Amino acid sequence: MTEKISFRTSKEARKNLILSIIALLIAIVFLFPLYWLVCMSFKSDAESFGKIVTYYPHNFTVSPWLENFTDKDFLFSLRNSFLIALIAMTISMVFGVTAAYGMGRYKVPGQKGFMLSFLITQMLPASLTLTPMYLIFSRLHLLGTYLGPALAIASGTVPFIVVTLRPYFKSVPTALDDAARIDGCNVFQAFFKIMIPAIKTGIITCLVISFLNGWNDLAYSMTFNVKPEMRPLTANIYRFQNKYGTKWNCIMAYGAILAMPVVILFVFLQKYIVGGMTAGAVKE
Amino acid sequence: MKIATKKKLEGYIFILPGFIYILVILGYPLIYNVVLALRNVNVKTFASHTDVFVGLGNFKMLIADPTFRKIFRNTLVFTFGCLFFQFTIGFIFALFFSQKFSLAGPIRGLVLVAYMMPMSVTALLGKNMFDVSSGVFNDLLMKMHLIKSPVEWLLSGGTAMAAVIFMNCWVGIPFNMLLLTSGLTGISQDIYESAEVDGASKFQKFIYITLPLVKPAITAVLMLGFIYTFKAFDLQFVMTSGGPLNATDVLGTYSYQLSFTQYEFSKGSASAIILFCCLFIVGLFYLRMIAREDD
Question: What is the ipTM of this complex?
Answer without folding.
Answer: 0.88
